Amino acid sequence: MTETSVHWRVTSKKNNGATMEQLRTIGRELAMGSQGGWGQSKEFLDLVKSIGEARSKAEEDRIITRELEHLKRRLADPDVPRRRMKELLLRLVYAEMLGHDASFGHIHAVKMTHDESLPLKRTGYLAVALFLDERHDLVILVVNTIQKDLRSDNYLVVCAALTAACRLIGEEAIPAVLPQVVELLAHPKEAVRKKAVMALHRFYQRSPSSVSHLVSNFRKRLCDNDPGVMGATLCPLYDLILEDPNAYKDLVVSFVNILKQVAERRLPTSYDYHQMPAPFIQIKLLKILAVLGSGDKQASGHMYTVLGDIFRKGDTASNIGNAILYECICCISSIFPNPKMLDAAAETTSKFLKSDSHNLKYMGIDALGRLIKINPDIAEEHQLAVIDCLEDPDDTLKRKTFELLYKMTKSTNVEVIVDRMIEYMINITDHHYKTEIASRCVELAEQFAPSNQWFIQTMNKVFEHAGDLVNIRVAHNLMRLIAEGFGEEDEGADSQLRSSAVDSYLRIVGEPKLPSSFLQIICWVLGEYGTADGKYSASYIIGKLYDVAEAHPTDDTVRAYAISAILKIFAFEIALGRKIDMLPECQSLVDELSASHSTDLQQRAYELQALLGLDKQAVESVMPSDASCEDIEIDRNLSFLNGYVQQAFEKGAAPYIPESERSGVVSVGNYRAQDHQETSAHALRFEAYELPKPSLPLAASQASISMPTTDLVPVPEPSYYKEDHPMSRSQTSSDSLSGEFGLKLRLDGVQKKWGRPAYSSSSTPSSSTSNQQATNGGASSEVGGSISSQARESSYGSKKQQSTEVSAEKQRLAASLFGKADRKAQAAARKTSKESPSTEKVSAAKATPQPAKEQVTPSAPPPDLLDLGEPVSSNPPLADPFTQLEGLLGPSSASPVVSETPASSSSKTPDLMSIFSDDVQTGATSNSTEPSLGVNVVAAKKGPSLQDALQKDAAARQVGVTPTGNNPILFKDLLG
Amino acid sequence: MIQAVMVMSTQGKPRLLKFYSYQPPEKHQDLVRGVFQLLSARPDNVSNFVKVDAIFGPGTKLVYKHLATLYFVFVFDSSENELAVLDLVQVFVETLDRCFKNVCELDIVFNFNKLHTILDEMILGGQVIETSSEQIMRSVEEIARLEKQSNTTSLIPKSISERFSR
């Protein structure tokens, strides 16, 4: 015997006496049954052992390669017994699981599915399902077998075929097996029916059109005798309902009834899991109801009673009980809101949040995120719990909390939230999440920024730490923002903003390892506004820009930005009539770039040199100062070239023939043209492809302004779209250019997310609230806040200790996140002040400096964190319909509702009802006499051993599945 | 929908891989590595849920259970409830425990086909079909019994049996 059986003996020795022998047989039967013993597995054991002992990946690879060679030989050998074949195939599966190519054996797996013997067939199907997928070429060879096996008398063969069908049948093969699968929906074995339902569901997922006519089968199966089949049917129904809820509204009552019966434990006890009645079915039903009741007041009305029941019976001690409660919360937050239900949901959510389990806290945060969509006030109560989660070492919880904060961000708390996000972002290495959180920061900042200063600082931080991860569009937005300013009427503020940006960039620019996109912004801003306020000299800025270009010899985009910025500085200086000299190192840079491999850099360098040779007038028109926001008019007809064209005609040039007319049409009128055409027709044609469009107008426009650059052949670079073409600002030359490249800073027509109109209304209240915090918040309301929240917390008793420990810092964070604490505190302070007139005066006195500011804040109540309509006022009107519903669905009238359903939902429901009531009866008398479940009888026969097994099981579960004392040694030997 | 079930050792060796949504075979090892790196970096006493949209695509999450020397990992999308999947892992482990009596890593290494059988009874095409470990055990036992019955012919070399079947 092998070591495995030794291991079995070892474990079974623990059970003494007469049961030992029995257990051993069962153990062997259970563990080895399907293999027919492990007598032949010495080789496999050795393989596993040697892999476990391998010291390096290379050694492991060598071992497996050797094994694969061996398997290849053996599989091809016709004299191998078929039972050995099975093991060889399993070893092949094992090798492939470890990441080695075993494709040579795939055909053997396919062959094995043809085998008559059940174990071999099943192994074949297993291997095929693991090796192949629907797109594989060999699948075509399996389809036939599946088709045959679906008709088999042996239900296990049918099951194996259905399992394989789920994995392997692709869109084209569906028609081949569909009739059989549909037939199997009525199979006497419930296991087969269940799998047939799933296979049909799978087909629906693959290709909805090919099974759409069979969708009604799912409805039929909902009334299956077996609750397991009914439960399985919920999966496809859920998918169908997600797609088109309206088509299934008629089932709402049925679903509610099923849920009710399940929750009332009317299913056989064999469906219980950890003392909960069929929890997975309940969860699926709740998911379905959530979809069906969404925005449907009438449908939701049916659900309230049963949801309330589930809440009442909710078991918060077990994991699965909490899973159901969480699903209930999801359902309530999705269906038409009902205040009573929302209260119950909020209460459960707070239980989750207060739990010590990280899993429950996670669910609590998620549930809170759903509930605040309906009632933003709920968040306030849990502010401290939320902050705890934010500071938790568990990354999952932290990220979930950030998600929640992201949902509840508004202009009053954006600063705190985004600061927190950035702080977290800096410290993580996970690129994927870094990208996500960076883009969220940008999004929030763009949407809610309280001030431009803050926005620019925030963006700087984002770019500094995650610049390469954010979309380049964000960088362009930032540049545009700085260029545009925040409104035409306040030029002073704009220039102040720009000079502060320049200041901060000059500080940062020397730092190593700045991301490319951030450097582009810096260069652009320095070039555009570096010298605008006269604080810095041109040569200083040029020096800095030169440093940037020098420090990034491989980044062409940054260098292009830098050289263009230098060009701008020179242009502005020349336009101002100042004479500035080219620094020698700068000259060498320009020389270097003129010889660059990148034609774009070359062009920029030449342009710079050309510009230096121009006089003041020309420079001013070529490079007007601060004109990045000017609209550029595009003259598509190139009318400014008319003179030039006329001149050329006079000299006898051929007229331009549009490309579309060029072939075939020969203009006889012009001999020269004809001549030209002929030559081009007879000679080799070098222009096999269409001319690149921009080159023609480009060349023309360059020519027109008779600059030294004319003798250059400007080649449009694909990288242009990223960059700001410096020449595009000159009115004369740019017209054609901007058509192609002008997209850079074309600001009109871009959705204006940012700018004065968007935030001007919110900026006032935000500043006033911050003032409040600054003036009296620090003194009175902060203290009041802590007192009131402590008072509130202490009422929960359990939380008391924690609340006393809550640091002042957390309180402050909470206040800034959830704002409301302030108001509540004030309210509380006022309440107490009523009792003691002296404090009232104090508070009144404190209140007096406020009114002016409070008047500034418009009628909207400032402390509302979440812009979701009128949350508080929306509740009272809702109360009325609910009381109406209460009347309809109250406990007194519950029975009529139930008895009413058969009539309303066709003939299916009575069937269903009777089934469940039957189940209850049989379930109550004795479980084993259940007629439909033949398997139960088997279990009853095995009575004593099963009980033993259960006992041992329970003992084992106490220890978890930790290997017993003897096992670890074995482990060490085998697996290192 | 459940996208994948993985069992791997605490050293990152895959012990069972089952994908319910298509993943190219050459990517499997990367997925295992990605998940392992993620899990091995997590301290004890934190939640059992991790977002894995970086590995398995947008909206995917995983639930894991660390037992003895093994990680049990279920990857799923937004249509499942995290806590419920955690219990599904529990059902799976309980069933294994029933099946192998004090399951240990070795059982899983040698009987991975049995694990597949159990999983096929629990999850089909990414949907949960059975959550009672008793019921699963019953099906698995019955399969074993019937397989044994039809096992008698399997000692004949395949060259002979093939001749017979012709």
UniProtKB/TrEMBL annotation, chain A:
<keyword id="KW-0653">Protein transport</keyword>
<dbReference type="InterPro" id="IPR011989">
    <property type="entry name" value="ARM-like"/>
</dbReference>
<feature type="region of interest" description="Disordered">
    <location>
        <begin position="709"/>
        <end position="739"/>
    </location>
</feature>
<feature type="compositionally biased region" description="Polar residues">
    <location>
        <begin position="728"/>
        <end position="737"/>
    </location>
</feature>
<dbReference type="GO" id="GO:0006886">
    <property type="term" value="P:intracellular protein transport"/>
</dbReference>
<comment type="subunit">
    <text>Adaptor protein complex 4 (AP-4) is a heterotetramer composed of two large adaptins, a medium adaptin and a small adaptin.</text>
</comment>
<dbReference type="GO" id="GO:0016192">
    <property type="term" value="P:vesicle-mediated transport"/>
</dbReference>
<dbReference type="InterPro" id="IPR050840">
    <property type="entry name" value="Adaptor_Complx_Large_Subunit"/>
</dbReference>
<feature type="compositionally biased region" description="Polar residues">
    <location>
        <begin position="892"/>
        <end position="909"/>
    </location>
</feature>
<dbReference type="InterPro" id="IPR002553">
    <property type="entry name" value="Clathrin/coatomer_adapt-like_N"/>
</dbReference>
<dbReference type="GO" id="GO:0030124">
    <property type="term" value="C:AP-4 adaptor complex"/>
</dbReference>
<comment type="similarity">
    <text>Belongs to the adaptor complexes large subunit family.</text>
</comment>
<dbReference type="InterPro" id="IPR016024">
    <property type="entry name" value="ARM-type_fold"/>
</dbReference>
<dbReference type="InterPro" id="IPR017109">
    <property type="entry name" value="AP4_complex_esu"/>
</dbReference>
<keyword id="KW-0333">Golgi apparatus</keyword>
<dbReference type="GO" id="GO:0012505">
    <property type="term" value="C:endomembrane system"/>
</dbReference>
<keyword id="KW-0472">Membrane</keyword>
<dbReference type="Pfam" id="PF01602">
    <property type="entry name" value="Adaptin_N"/>
</dbReference>
<feature type="compositionally biased region" description="Polar residues">
    <location>
        <begin position="786"/>
        <end position="806"/>
    </location>
</feature>
<keyword id="KW-0813">Transport</keyword>
<protein>
    <recommendedName>
        <fullName>AP-4 complex subunit epsilon</fullName>
    </recommendedName>
</protein>
<feature type="compositionally biased region" description="Low complexity">
    <location>
        <begin position="760"/>
        <end position="770"/>
    </location>
</feature>
From TrEMBL, chain B:
<feature type="domain" description="AP complex mu/sigma subunit">
    <location>
        <begin position="1"/>
        <end position="145"/>
    </location>
</feature>
<dbReference type="InterPro" id="IPR011012">
    <property type="entry name" value="Longin-like_dom_sf"/>
</dbReference>
<keyword id="KW-0653">Protein transport</keyword>
<comment type="similarity">
    <text>Belongs to the adaptor complexes small subunit family.</text>
</comment>
<dbReference type="GO" id="GO:0006896">
    <property type="term" value="P:Golgi to vacuole transport"/>
</dbReference>
<dbReference type="GO" id="GO:0030659">
    <property type="term" value="C:cytoplasmic vesicle membrane"/>
</dbReference>
<dbReference type="GO" id="GO:0006886">
    <property type="term" value="P:intracellular protein transport"/>
</dbReference>
<dbReference type="InterPro" id="IPR000804">
    <property type="entry name" value="Clathrin_sm-chain_CS"/>
</dbReference>
<keyword id="KW-0472">Membrane</keyword>
<protein>
    <recommendedName>
        <fullName>AP complex subunit sigma</fullName>
    </recommendedName>
</protein>
<dbReference type="InterPro" id="IPR016635">
    <property type="entry name" value="AP_complex_ssu"/>
</dbReference>
<keyword id="KW-0813">Transport</keyword>
<keyword id="KW-0333">Golgi apparatus</keyword>
<dbReference type="GO" id="GO:0005794">
    <property type="term" value="C:Golgi apparatus"/>
</dbReference>
<dbReference type="InterPro" id="IPR027155">
    <property type="entry name" value="APS3"/>
</dbReference>
<dbReference type="GO" id="GO:0030123">
    <property type="term" value="C:AP-3 adaptor complex"/>
</dbReference>
<dbReference type="Pfam" id="PF01217">
    <property type="entry name" value="Clat_adaptor_s"/>
</dbReference>
<dbReference type="InterPro" id="IPR022775">
    <property type="entry name" value="AP_mu_sigma_su"/>
</dbReference>
<keyword id="KW-0968">Cytoplasmic vesicle</keyword>
